[in-house]
Design a protein that fits this description.
By secondary structure, this protein is α+β, with helices and mostly antiparallel strands. It has one domain. About 25% of the residues lie in helices and about 40% in strands. It is built from four helices and eleven strands; from the N terminus they run H-E-E-E-E-E-E-E-E-H-E-E-H-E-H. The longest helix is centred in the last third of the chain and has 18 residues. The radius of gyration is 16 Å and the shape is globular. The protein starts with a helix and ends with a helix.
């Protein structure tokens, strides 16, 4: 869905890294906003990079999706942006009890079984919009929820115009017996690869 942790997890898996760096805030934004839950209640997010399949399981709890890895539970929320040319974009927000801040990514859901994580050049977009952010060591820190939303909405518009860089993931619905079998197989393969 910290997006940094899911991204790092996916790298370990390996799936992707927000190559443009991390986007974060010192404290989570959107506390008063109910997140969208467009994905199944339980699912496996899977990808293939260089012929290697990787997977991570998510379970819905309220308006969040939870993932557990190595004893650490991470919470992911999807906050809808305005659609762009009929495409559904979300700010993906990742939080954990181990970090008071939050990490963000630009997520697109295509159909019922594809999740796309788009690379966001947050520093560049913030500068183009005349917004102030803190940057350093590949991390862009936002102090304002409104500024983060403006940058992500602009990023979504740019994705539609240029198709930018991204990583695509399959959503395997664990309520479907065939998809469940495939998801469980991928989870086992991923665990074996990490040993």
């Amino acid at each position: 869905m910290r997006w940094r942790a899911i991204v790092a997890t996916m790298l370990v898996l390996p799936l992707l890294v927000l190559a443009a760096g991390c986007i974060r805030s010192e404290a989570p934004f959107f506390a008063d906003v109910t997140a969208a839950t467009p994905l199944p209640d339980s699912f496996v997010l899977a990808s293939e990079v260089d012929g290697r399949r990787s997977a991570l399981r998510f379970d819905r709890q309220g308006d969040a999706y939870l993932a557990s890895e190595n004893g650490r539970v991470t919470r992911y929320r999807l906050l809808p942006l305005e659609p762009v040319d009929g495409r559904r974009f979300f700010i993906g927000m990742e939080t954990s009890d181990r970090d008071p801040g939050a990490y963000y990514g630009l997520v697109e859901i295509v159909g019922e079984d594809d999740v796309i994580m788009h690379v966001v050049e947050a520093d560049q977009l913030a500068a183009e919009l005349g917004l102030s952010v803190q940057s350093g060591d590949g991390v862009t820190t936002f102090a304002s929820q409104a500024d983060l939303v403006a940058v992500m909405q602009r990023a979504a518009a740019e994705v539609v115009a240029s198709e930018g860089r991204y990583s695509r993931f399959d959503v395997l619905d664990l309520a479907d017996p065939d998809q469940r079998a495939k998801g469980e197989r991928l989870l086992a393969q991923t665990a074996e690869q990490e040993r």
